[in-house]
Specification:
It is globular and about 40 Å long. It has one domain (2-190): Class I glutamine amidotransferase (GATase) domain (Rossmann fold, 3-Layer(aba) Sandwich). β11 (161-167) and β12 form a beta hairpin. α1 (13-26) crosses α5. The protein has helices spanning 13-26, 55-65, 67-77, 86-91, 184-190, and strands at residues 2-7, 31-36, 47-50, 81-84, 92-94, 106-111, 122-126, 135-139, 144-148, 153-158, 161-167, 170-173. It is built from five helices and twelve strands.
Length: 194
């Protein structure tokens, strides 16, 4: 059985756990999902997810709990990792905001709230590389990806801007894939190889 960790300092933890379970079932895998709030669990996980929330708060809590270095080491280990919305901001090399201590596990820069505030939230059918049909992406105070490093593959764009990327074992989305019943992004990140 695979052990999946969801960083649970903030964000849609239960929704992501449910999406991981659905994706695992669809791929014939067994998975247990653990909510991570303190250091010590990340190294034992087979899959790792860092959800959205508020990026300054997430980065501060990761550092305070000592989880930040574990996440860096997890990404470097080659095990699959998915980061969404604020998780993408924290995982980037530059959030263009000194209040966010980024982890630099994705070689991208990120523009916070690039698609507007909460009231500007929207859904869009996105063509995502690796998926046969469009994905119903939910954007809430969503960031956009700015600069993309040489080793980063753009998986989807919206309005001419990258909103989903893959760098080796790390997949990042500017949208919230957990807010739909469609678990294909979780499947793409965790259960499908390139």
């Amino acid at each position: 059985m695979l052990r999946a960790g969801v960083i649970a300092v903030q964000g849609d933890v239960a929704e992501h756990a449910a999406a991981i379970r659905r994706a695992a079932e669809r791929h014939g895998e067994s998975v247990s999902v653990e909510e991570i709030r303190t250091a010590g669990t990340v190294p034992d996980c087979d899959l790792l997810l860092m959800p959205g929330g508020e990026s300054t708060t997430i980065s501060r809590l990761l550092a305070e709990e000592g989880i930040d270095e574990e996440v860096r080491e997890f990404a470097a280990s080659g095990k699959p990792m998915l980061v969404t919305c604020a998780g993408l901001i924290v995982a980037s090399r530059d959030a263009k905001d000194d209040r966010v201590a980024t982890l630099s596990v994705l070689d991208v820069t990120v523009d916070r709230n690039a698609f507007g505030r909460q009231k500007d939230s929207f859904e869009a059918a996105l063509d995502v590389r690796g998926l046969d049909d469009p994905f119903p992406a939910v954007f809430i105070r969503a960031p956009a990806i700015g600069e993309v490093g040489d080793g980063v593959e753009v998986l989807a764009e919206f309005d001419g801007r990258p909103v989903a990327v893959r760098q080796d074992n790390v997949v990042g989305t500017a949208f919230h894939p957990e807010l739909t019943d469609d678990s294909r992004i979780h499947g793409l990140a965790f259960f499908e190889s390139d």
